[in-house]
Amino acid sequence: MINKLTQNIGSQNAMFIQCVYGDEHIDIIEDVLIPSIIESTDKNIIFSCTNYNCNSSKFIKSKLVENITIENYIFNKNKVRGFAEAHNDLFKLIKPTDYFLILNPDCIVSPNAFDLLVKRFLLNPKKTGIVEGRQWPAEHPKEFDPLTLRTPWASGAFCLINAEFYASIGGMDENYFLYNEDVDLSWMSWLNNLDVLYERNAVVTHFTNSSFFHDDNCINNERYYSTRNFIAIAKKFFGNEGERNALQYLKTCPDKAFVSCVVEDYENNMQDKIKVITKKIKSPYIKITGINQYHKLRI
Amino acid sequence: MIHVLANNKQAANDFLKRHKLLEKKITIHLNYSSYFQFINDIINNQNIQDYACLVHDDVTLPTYFEYNLHQLISTLKLKWPNWGICGNMGVLPFQIGPDAAKIVRYIFDSHGGPNYKGAILPSTCIDGNIMLLNLPLIRKKNLCIPNFKGFQLYDLSLSIETIRAGLAVLTAPHLICHHNSKCSNLQLDNAANSTDFQKYFSSIVKEQTIETLNGQLPLSISSNSTNAKRMSIKRDTLKNASIGRPLKKLSIVVRTRGLRPNLLPRTITSIRYFIACIKNQIDVSFSVITDTPSNELSPEVKKHITDYARTTHHPSSRINLIIHAVNQSIHDDYIWFIDDDDWIFPNKAVELASLISIADSDSMFFIGTRHFKENITDNGSIYSSDNYENKADRYFSPKNWILSFSGTNHIPFCGFIFPPSMLTDIKWEDYGQIDYCEDFLIQLHCIEKSSCIHILDELLCGISIRSSGNTVTEANSNKWKQSLIDMGAHQTITKLNSQLFSVSSCLSQLQLASPQLTKTTANPTYSLEARNSLEKNILLLCRLLYGILKFIMQPKSWLKRIYSGYLMLKKGSVRDMIRRIMTVSS
Known about the structure:
Chain A is an alpha/beta fold and about 300 residues long. Chain A has seven helices and ten strands. In chain A, strands 1, 2, 3, 4, 5, 6, 7, 8, 9 and 10 form a ten-stranded mixed sheet that branches.
């Protein structure tokens, strides 16, 4: 049973934004993210969100705030969902046409950020799969073509997605749980002859856990799942040879105990679920350049 | 009240002889093969009510220990209502003092004496020589530790289980003693490396290594998919200790003259984000103050600050803005100044809020800040890719705060948080023209008045550095020099706390001689890594020769060391293997 808490005010000319959050993000979304969206655009916004923990009793209140309709969805699933699954759940309910945006709950939107993504998409909607925005203060150092704006992959923290393309591939791959779904989606876009673009003028503030901070002796989720999913994505797009190459890459990692744990998790929980892409890969943008690296670095 | 697990009757009698005044309060326990069992028996013994103080038989207590104990219990009830256990030596989830210590010692033993005074501090783990247990709360939470054999790591186990139960682990000076410990590192290593211990600790904590009083304890890695069931020791230590403490008030103040309207929105948004992260932990108020009249502020600036308290004060000066802000925040516990072109990183907001919650009111905090070199066209937007570039630059470690007494400021203004009440006795008029060093003066003044310096070595503030528009990049440095000498003149002439200015040069000299010379473990053995390569090789050769001599004299002890060396080799460290085999205890 899905619980829709308010009526949609009308989706004509509205921009659909999807956001998956946890308990710890609720105050940030209500106090910072929503006000930043209001300040960012004059368009009608339908902000659809869901707590990734289906068992939590905490959620964003559905309401109408100025030009934003906030709709929170509760799914009767009794589990903690991954990034892809939660977004797929929202997409199946909302059924946006043309395009929709996904946004991390710990982002702050700058003026015109959404409008710039949409403008870039509408320049060539039949040829564009994903348009990514820039993150501040830590812009991702991956390559992009300054003339065509093409980039190998788009971060799922803040991007616009071609809705027809998304529906045609059944959404993001839920096997990853966390991390690499955005790389996978980008590669699927390239396989479907759709561009992945980087719109640098569309900016969100995103205080990610980067190399600036100590990791408190823990293996953070990003490091763990990214490394595990690196093997999975290599197998999915490059077959058994890709899997072998990924494992060979990991042998160079000095932390043997960590790699052993990650490989064991992959073999026990993911390996059999990977569906290898049979289509021949011609795009130069689908590539692996290092451990969990799918791009060249900008100089 | 005082429970002593004695090795044998002789040890018990010796203990009682040393503590004749306390004899009636002491219960001797014998014939235990496991300290774990002993602790569980104490917890489960309903005849022991309220509090139990577990003491090693090789400890000597001060004459007035009973009085100190009762005073401690009263203080804990009043100020730390969520306390579970308390010891006299512990690992901190943050750092304190001039050398940014991670371990606090209120003890005399073979490694030295106390390294701090006066403060009760939350700890991730305590030493087992004395442990005071809050039995009512422990029993309420059904706390118990596993029934392992032996006399190693029971204190770490009890500390972790206490934190897991949602209670605080504390270190207090009232439990100071002398400990005549003869604990073997070999026994400790064997216990730590055992499969049972590894499995037990790995299933409870997220950390890959646990910082203990005897160094880092590496754990076997588990899948992150089980993280939800495991706790973070550091975070939960602070969180538990802050439960029941009075709600603290932090005032964040942005000074602006309205000259950077393109950057002020970023500052304000980052502060709002920070507040959203911690509003359930501490009470935060946020204000923007300016001495620019309203009709002279640009529309963008006015638009962004209308939601916040805005004060106008004349005559115009950076000092007057500070005085005004302090007066407005005088009833708050702490104040934090952020410049209108800088921003807050909220990533470690929860840690900072927890630290503020547990600190005493006359404490101050040093936090990490970093320069970011920004190229922005004049009044350009930071959001336009044509106008803007940024690059991370120098990090200002809060651990270097003591070096500010060298005459050079090592901590930016946004890098420390202090009680506003500490500034009420500054006679600003005595300092001449210190418009450019007002933060330096404030820092030194507050340090002298603080009872505890807390250090959180995490990045909390980004400082914008541009080719123009910063006071630090002004071409004409005369104003800086004038401010510095005016401040320095008054500081050096006054006699108050004059010794503090010699501490910094002393530490600097020690650091130059041996960069690693910082006590980060209970055992102040100076690290081999501190030496240059010639010294290292000579030291290793000496150890080799000594080891060979010892082998000839005592071949049996060789076997134990070979096994210990084998364990090091398994971990991949050849140097440690050689060191283990060749190191001989006297």
